[in-house]
Amino acid sequence: MFQSYEIKSDKSYGTKHVPILRERLKALGLDGFIVPHADEYQNEYLPDCGERLKWISGFTGSAGAAVILMDSAAIFVDGRYTIQVRAQVDDTLFEFEDLVTAPPSDWIEKNVPSGARLGYDPWLHGIEAVNQFKAAAKRAGVELVSLPANPIDESWDDRPDKPLAKINPHGTQYAGQSSEEKRLVIGEALGKRGGDAIVLAQPASIAWLLNIRGGDVSHSPLPLCRVVLNSDGTAGLFVDERKVTPALKTHLGNSITIRDEDNLGAALAELGKAGKTVEADAGTAPAWVFERLTEAGATVKRFADPCVLPRAKKNTVEREGARQAHIRDGVAMSKFLCWLETAGPTGEHDEISVAKQLEAFRCEDALLRDISFTTISAVGPNAAFPHYSVDTNSNRKLEMNGIYLVDSGGQYPDGTTDITRTVVIGTPTDEMKDRFTRVLKGHIGISSCRFPEGTAGGQLDILARHALWQAGLNFNHGTGHGVGSYLGVHEGPHSIAAHKKAMDAPLAEGMIVSNEPGYYREGHYGIRIENLILVTAPEAIDGGELPMHGFENLTLAPIDLNLVEKSIMSDSEIAWLNNYHAEVRKVIGPLVEGETKAWLKKATRAI
Questions:
Q1: Does residue 81 form part of some domain?
Q2: DSSP letters of 288-357?
Q3: In-domain check, residue 605
Q4: Element (H, E) at 4
Q5: Which of 41, 109, 113, 7 has its CA nearest to residue 70?
Q6: How far apart are CA 394 and CA 376, in angstroms?
Q7: For 219-275, how does the pLDDT look when each residue is reduced to its tens digit (9 = 90+)?
Q8: Which one of 19, 363, 383, 441 is CB 3.0 to 4.6 Å from 405, fit for a cystine?
């Protein structure tokens, strides 16, 4: 199985580890330390050795930070984790703060005493974040100290080893374009900007640029490494050489030199000594890169990672790969949902056994490489945690007349999937049906939207919330995130959410984004409906004046009709649901047999 259900943390983590860190800080002459949820590669999902925030606090979410002082501490999370953080983190040790509205820089300014020395690890923060900390520290009269070694690493006796997964070529039958073509295009643009080289720090961008995949991060085929790309398209790959195979060397060819990762500092120093102009992304490259280049005398320019946008705009091969991956994934989901209808009411199953069964259905596909993230398998009140992660301690039995929510996905060489379905075991209440249908109306609003070129995802977010708002309801997470092509299940630059980044990144043809409005009643149940959708090319509309983008549904699996309250749906919404189910039946129906085929016909019936 790809997923473990062992208990990942508890409130004792802080009790055990905060005093150890404070002793280390005291020895270093420091009064505090900033702990982000990040590793040296600015990943969202971290290898075990990078889970420093979990080690110090017990929090296991994918976004957050903490500031540890000698007599106080605070932990910062976004809206997805406001319930979870209180369940995992000791409130006698940590204050709980909002990562978005009251970020660490604000807390530092208000809470760190004047004259204090506050440390940070320059490998774990981008330069923009460090500059925010510096500004806050200056206003508070605090000295911000860049540390040569991380004091948590020095305090963590049983810290796991760094991952050493082999790096493999990712063929053009999946990538659709050779690495050489990509490097030449990006290198030429770099040269036209007056740059000699650019430091690429995001593993996903490096995987895309070099057409390689790895296994250093759970459920994401990422190789942890760095690249310095030159304006002529040649590059240096800095990586632990134990990950390199003969096949990889052949794939990379003579235009890419392979050097041990520890040599990156020397390579940056060489660029500085030669007076080169070097670019790096201020949002994703570690502050260490900027500090090292500046010390070496290079002309340092901030420039957004040039791989992010072309990586997000899938080419025709990647789009077709996504379609095929979703068809196979839809077969697994249909088998699972059919099985669940019979198995759910028996009283024999719980969140873990059901998640294992879903994984088993996915494993019937020989192309499955991994799940795309830890499956959210949630019953009743556990489903009210948007990013709940079941373990042997939290595991609940499926309950009659209750909600079950499953958010899951697969990693296939031709595509990455992510789907959420909410089903009722037994008979739903009128409230459940009302809330589910309002979420469905928001889902349909996004999926059926037409929009002009230049529209950002944030401009569409209201469509997912309108029906909920009319009933005085809402959900506290974004509506959609970008998805990679056999890469991360979360990627930018685009998203559908009401924040600045979502307003700054227009949706463009070929982008894949999730559509996942929800509703969560704390202590009772949660609802979410998620499909992945592909941004289509602008097309003319009869009688219209402007061509409009739209969305193509990639995800193909039934939506639970037992939870639909038809009376609050419009005719067009009913037509959308019937048409969607007809497409599911048409595509998935011929690929399943027997009981699943009969169930699918019923589950996709017109209403």
A1: yes
A2: HHHHHHHHHT-EEEE---TTHHHHHS--HHHHHHHHHHHHHHHHHHHHHHHHHHHHGGGS--BHHHHHHH
A3: no
A4: none
A5: 113
A6: 12
A7: 999 999 999 999 999 999 999 999 999 999 999 999 999 999 999 999 999 999 999
A8: 383
